[in-house]
Amino acid sequence: MTSNIMLTLAFLAGVLAVYYLTPKAGRQWILLAASLLFYLSADPRMLLLSGGSALWSFAAGIGTERAGTKGQKKAWLLAAVLPALLVLFVFKYFNFFVGSVWSLVGAAGLSGSAPVLSLALPLGISYYTFKMISYNADVFLGKREAEKGISGCGAYLTYVLFFPQIVSGPIERSEGFLAQLHEGPCYDAALFAEGMQRIVLGLFKKLVIANRLSAYVDTVFGAPESYPGLACVMAAFFYSFQLYCDFSGYSDIAVGMGNLLGIRSRKNFDCPYFSRGIKEFWSRWHISLSSWLKSYVYIPLGGNRVSAVRRCVNVLAVFLISGLWHGAGWTFLIWGAIHGVWNMFARKKEPDCGPVRKIWQTLVTFLGVTLGWVFFRAESFGAALTFLKRAVTGFSLSYLDIQNSILPFTGDNTCAAYFLTACGFLFLLFLYERGRVYGKTREKGEAYLSVFWLVLMTLSVVLFGVFGVSGFLYANF
Amino acid sequence: MKRILTAVGSALLAALLLIFVKNEYARLLPVSTYGMQAAVAQGETENLFIGSSMFRQGLSIDVLEEELPGTSYILSYNGNQPALMAMELAYMLEQGLQVTNIYIDLYPYTAAAAPWISDTKILLDTDLDFKIRAWRLMAENSGADFSDFFEFFVTANNEQLLTYPINNRLVSSQFRNGGTLLAQEGSTREELYALGMLGSRDGLNEAQVEGYRQLAALAQEYGLNLYFLETPKYERMYADEDYMELYELCLAEIGDIEENWEGKGSFTLICAEDLDFDSSDPGNFQDLIHLSAAGRTEYTRLLCGAVKSER
After folding, report:
1. For the domain B30-119+175-310, what is the CATH code?
2. Contact (CB<8Å) A455/B7
3. Can you give the residue ranges of every domain in chain B?
4. CB pairs below 8 Å between A and B: how many?
5. pTM here?
6. Beta strands B44-51 and B175-176: pairing type?
7. Probe site for chain B from A413, A451, A464 (most B CB atoms < 10 A)
């Protein structure tokens, strides 16, 4: 169910029917039951671990609040955070770190094979671990009260395991979510309509664009030397769009599903490829993660109120953590380092300027981000370099190379149609997002426009959705 | 809320309408240079070749037009199977196509497969009734499920239709009378021996064997000369026990059909081994089963000679 979005939506439809027939006060329990059932269907054994972690985090929150001294509070915080990080480390990073250490040992001339843990990654572990840490940190910092009692415990478990967000986030903060649960989510027609629009937009991004591009990207990244340099350049750009549409598409669906359940969430993406600088990009891309890192890593490290050198170290640390969060591998660390260094030297905000310069800045930012994604996508650092080398040295715009660069779409004479269709839908998305970033329509015009997009996207999903590809890229993180 | 539901509802209705229009009327788009609609649009053709990619890569339209009397047309779809070929022939004859000689691709692996439309161009060339019959054939014999149904009727060919003005021109420029104009290079012995074999099958599929019988029945009904052709495969294939087992089964079935042949026209089987074609020359092959441009020209010349001598 977790890897099939249509099944997840069918599950939601069933939950909605029960949910709105239940009195307001009981709805949080329906949500909890649905979330547990959802997790159970995906990962029954790991539910004990995830549920147990959430219960411990809940108990530690109470302990933190009741602790008399700052030292005791800190001890409770550590008691909450360290086990969560340890579990995350064991499941996600152990093999990578031990493997890296063993490589060093091997380089030093010592022999032996690294111990390898064969553990399946619990569903949503990166997301719910960060949710729990933020909750415990907020209680420690006095930003919020700890959840208490049976109702509080149920609400907290729902927050951690909330089924629309467990697969690929967003990393929702506890205050807004839990407050809504305690108030008792109610049917709000406007929110429900907004949710439906978001789901359609998410399905459009995921099924029509991301899934359409995935076969091409996988083929070319899998064997870059078999294709012309132009194909590598195209694959790099297509991967940028695939990743964005896949992840933001899921976020839209997750937020939309929450809306249908009467729960408001913050947006996780805000047209990031329209950014004019890297700082702006990170204020628009995976907003819930970047704001989490800012609140719980960057600011505690001193934020901007430190020396220039220390600030640079802090920025780099944040982006290395961001890289590691995405995956246990050197390619993710390198990707994080690229963004870290770029952010160190970037302006806080690009000054206002003319349209040509704005377009130029946007293009440069997009190109830089795309270059970074090559390391993010590649199997290894060497593979990324091979890919980039092929893109540069094998590049030409001859008729044969153009033909061979389009061929990987389907491998037969339908490839041109698929390529043109993919470009057409990317252009549609560009127009849609451009309207959101720069559009100045009157209210009535806005309403007509949103209906137009809704009709167009629904039609596109039905007629051009690529349903065969399951799973979400960010579910792997 | 009402506005949103109306919008989504209207979009779904519009999608339904478009799906119907596509399935029934997409075949009426200006014809290309390959496929069933282009054949039907010709009105008549002396020599109609119906097959899979074996025919597309194995037959040269230039040589056929040069060597055989009358016009020739190559109808080839990827993985085209006997059961589907029979439906295609029936469809074209019903649409009024006049044919004198019909040549059927005898490729054992397609005769061993469960019925399936492996080239969605077939759907673009036919009406809704054909698609429903094809779907029933697939569903009854291959366990097709809802996702296949959705792809079959809803999403198949939408990209080609959306980009029709450009795509049709691009693809049509690669064909003439169904024959490919692309010149594929041959391989080396090392390359052909590095390729994996195509594996074994559990004998011939009954629905495909029935397809051969239906083809013969149609040829009898319309008084056509019927030819079964096996295009050359690389020598490795003839040394492969799995392939040869299916090949022998196919020949046995064709033999049965020939025994019961009561048509006015002739019945001929021409296998690659009947011709003086060099199946050990890697330059004649793109891969184990498809001919290169050089192999195609050579084979078609030999085939035309054999066909003429049979007459």
Report:
1. 3.40.50.1110
2. yes
3. 30-119+175-310
4. 84
5. 0.89
6. unpaired
7. A413
